[in-house]
Structures are given as C-alpha cells and as structure tokens.
Write a structure and sequence with these properties.
By secondary structure, the protein is α+β, with helices and mostly antiparallel strands. The protein contains five helices and five strands, in the order βββββααααα. Strands 4-3-2-1-5 form a five-stranded antiparallel β-sheet. Helix 1 packs parallel to helix 3 and helix 2 packs parallel to helix 4. The radius of gyration is 17 Å and the shape is globular.
Length: 164
C-alpha cells in the first residue's frame, strides 16, 4: 500500500509523488485512485489503487542506479539498423519496459543520433518522452529541480558527443 508523499515511477510517464488518494465513481462503482503529481508539466495522473502493481508502479531509483545512468549517458551510442518502423518499435519497447536504464540508453542514442543527422518526428517524440521520464525520476533521486537535472544530463551528453 502506497501513502501520500511516496515517490513512485509510472512507466511511460515518469516519476511523481502521491499527492492524494481519491474515491471516484466510475460506471456506478466506487473505486480508489492514487493521485500522482508529476514534477514536469504540472501534470496529475490518477492510477487505480488495485492496479498499481500490475501496471508496473515502482519506487524511485537509488544512488547506485543514478551512477549507472550516468555511465550509460557517457557511453557510446548503440547503432540501430533497419527501417524507421522497426527502429521506432524497438525504441518504444525499451521505453515501455519501465527500466530507467533502458530509457536512459534511448535518451543517449537518440540525442547523439540527432546531433549527427536529424531524427524523424516520431523519434523526436520518443526522445522528448525519454528525456521527460529520465529527468522526472532523477529530480527525486538527486533531490534537484528539473532544470538542474536537465543541465546535468545535457552536460554529460555534450561531453559524450565531444568524445566521438
């Protein structure tokens, strides 16, 4: 059972804080929802309490995982071949996994790919989503603002680009 104030990650949306637990009537049935407040975009997400586990809601990462993400962002991009459609679905699958390390690798790969040659609009949307997901979780893991985390990530990625 989660409590108000808990910081959690919702796959494909990012991290947020449980701001409340509300009862809502849906199709004549009372249901309980966690109200998740996201640090980016001032978005509010409602998650049925009985489905929290099945949708992959999890705790925010530890400091060890932050260091792992830093190493991933510093790493060399993976070369992804195939048609745009195959690349898009492979990227989407990694992001849906809910694994922040996979999302960080997507962020690195697409950022560096975009610096070499412009990426498609679909890949651009995935890049923006990956950036939002990684930043939102690191806001809580590092106890920093979204702007501070964004600057930290950009510094790492610009250094990684300069190494090539």
């Amino acid at each position: 059972m989660l409590h108000i104030g808990d910081k959690v990650v919702y796959p494909m949306h990012g991290a947020g804080e449980i701001a409340g637990i509300e009862e809502c009537e849906v199709l004549g049935e009372d249901k309980s929802y966690y109200v998740l407040r996201m640090p980016i975009g001032n978005m509010k997400v409602m998650i049925p309490t009985e489905k929290a586990d099945s949708i992959g809601l999890r705790d925010v990462i530890s400091q060890d995982t932050v260091e792992e993400i830093e190493e991933i962002l510093k790493g060399s991009p993976e070369k992804v071949g195939g048609s745009w459609n195959k690349r898009f679905h492979a990227i989407l699958s990694r992001m849906k996994s809910g694994d922040i390390c996979e999302v960080a690798a997507v962020l690195r790969n697409l950022t560096l790919q975009d610096q070499q040659r412009k990426i498609s609009s679909g890949e651009r949307r995935l890049l923006d989503l990956a950036r939002q997901i990684v930043i939102s979780e690191l806001v809580y893991a590092l106890d920093k603002t979204p702007d501070e985390v964004s600057a930290w990530i950009e510094g790492i990625l610009s250094h990684a680009d300069a190494k090539k």
